[in-house]
Every structure is written in C-alpha cells, then in structure tokens.
Amino acid sequence: MEKYSEEKLTKASTRDDRVADTGLQQWLSTVCSAPKTATPPDLESLRLPRTRCPGPDLYSVRNFEIPSQTGVPVRYYQTGEQPRPLVVYVHGGAFTFGDLESHDRTCRRLALHGDVNVMAVDFRLAPEHPAPAAIEDVVNVLRWASIEQEQIKRPPMPVALAGDSSGGLIAVLSANEYISSGGLISAMLLACPNADLTLSSLSIRNKGQGWGLSSADLRWFIQQWVEDLEPETLGKYSPLHVDLKSLPTTLIAIAEHDPLHDEGAELAKKLRVLGVDVQVLDYAGLVHGFLSLDNVSTAAEVAGTNLLTLFGQVLHDGLSGALPRNMGH
Predict the structure, then answer these.
(1) Containing domain of residue 228, as a range?
(2) pTM of the full structure
(3) Which entry of 103, 104, 164, 165 is annotated as an active-site residue?
(4) Options 203, 288, 294, 297, the catalytic residue
C-alpha cells in the first residue's frame, strides 16, 4: 500500500480566510447570521426529522438489527449483486444526534463512488447513553459483520471502517478495541475527526467561531458524552492520548476552516509514528462536515467524491492481493 503512504499537508502559514466557492460562502453566511444565545444547543431541535436532499439510487437498501445485548439498528447499502468490500459507517453528530437518516446521502455516495457496500450504524446517543455505549455498539457490528455470511455478501477480507466528525473518534476507539481483541480491519476513513477531547489545538482557538462549528458548543457536546471534563476522563476517550494498537491503513481528511483541523493532523502524525500507513488530505477553503455539504457547495461535492473514490480504491486494491496493514503485525 506504499502509494497511499505519502502525507499531503499544506502548511497553515500559507492559508487565509477565503472559502472554496460562493455556495459555501452563502451557507456560512446563513449559519453565522443565526441568532446567538448563551444557552447550550437544543438537542430536541437537533434531533427532529428533517427533509434532506436524497442520495443516489442503489441496488438495495434495507434496515435490520444486529443481535447484541441491546440490539443495534443498521442500514445496509448494496451497490450490486456481486460481493464487494464492506464499510461499517459511524455517523457524526457531536455524540448526541444523528441517525440512519441524517447520513443516508453520505452513505449512498460512499457506496456509489467507492463501489463498496456500506453498513451504517445507529449507535446509542448521549447524554442518555454516554461513553462507551457508542463504541460498544460499533464493536458489536464489526464482530457481527466479520463472520456473518447469510445476510450480507462479503468478500474474503476484513471489514473496513469509516466515520466523520465525532463518528471518526468513535471509529478509531472502536477499531482499537476490536483489534485488541483479535479482530481485523482492512482500512479506515476518517473525515474531519475529533481526536482530542481536551480541545487543546491551535485551530480550536483560531477557527472556533464563525466557521459553522463553535468551540463552545463542542465543549458542551463533549460533556454530554463523557459526563465530566476531568483530564483523565477526556484523555481516556481521545485518540491523541490513548494507547493505540496497530491500526490499519488510514485516510484522514481535514478541512482548512475546521476547528478540528489540527487535531486531525496530529492524529495522522501519531499513527505514522506507530507505523500505520496514513494519507492526509488537507482541503483548502472547506469547513467541518464538508462531506454532507455536497448539495450546497460544488467544491465540497468534488472533494467528497474524490475522497470516497480514493477510499474505495484502497479497499479494492486490498482485494486484489495487498494485505491490509494490521494483518502483517
């Protein structure tokens, strides 16, 4: 997998405040013009069903439940009759909102552009179910998908794992636990991931207001998931601070105007030191969550399509004979 190993980072000193296109600028203007209050985010409103642009049609899309102590709802996307690499997808939503509907279009795009099958996980949300509930749910899905042959057509390779935003953090911690217990993962895709719940990076301060994701809101959402903000607790659930195992080949996408930009870049450096095959794609002019902004920004659509296509290429190359990274350890 050497052709995926070269990190592509643009120095922050060369960046400015320009956004990628007018569509994204208009979206930011709308988001930033909304009235600001001192109250915390309204979870009830964030969880309300919303009308969203539909994603591409696929061969098959169906819902079912993975058997476990609590039962984990999933949505399974197939791009065709023949077996394809399987990607377990962990949605974003600040640990507290999001579901199978909120990321349906993203999962359909991943299936289409990556030419893969996707299993989206409807994990338990905070604050009703704080950490590690979401991690437990994702690990249960990974274990089930790694051995199940009747309900899904899976080629003879480990499942892959993808996540965006808070889902990226949950994906890393789930992969770490799953691999520690003997499981195998072929590759990971992390889009704008949380990586440091202490919120200590420079981009948290520089991009924490006016770019669609507030650092103050971030702190509130994190507290819903970990229940307290003690350094020991935050470190326990921060990929930058936990003892990571031999993780698989990983693509990390970060965006210039994202408060989480720097912690995503630092996560890549940490993985590289551990011997993980990492590629970082640092997108100029884009903001946090650009994967789901394909309907408002051409630049976000192009970046997302390229990212999802590249991840599919990694997985299909793995099928053609290259061993996934963690299978060699």
Answers:
(1) 2-34+64-328
(2) 0.91
(3) 165
(4) 288
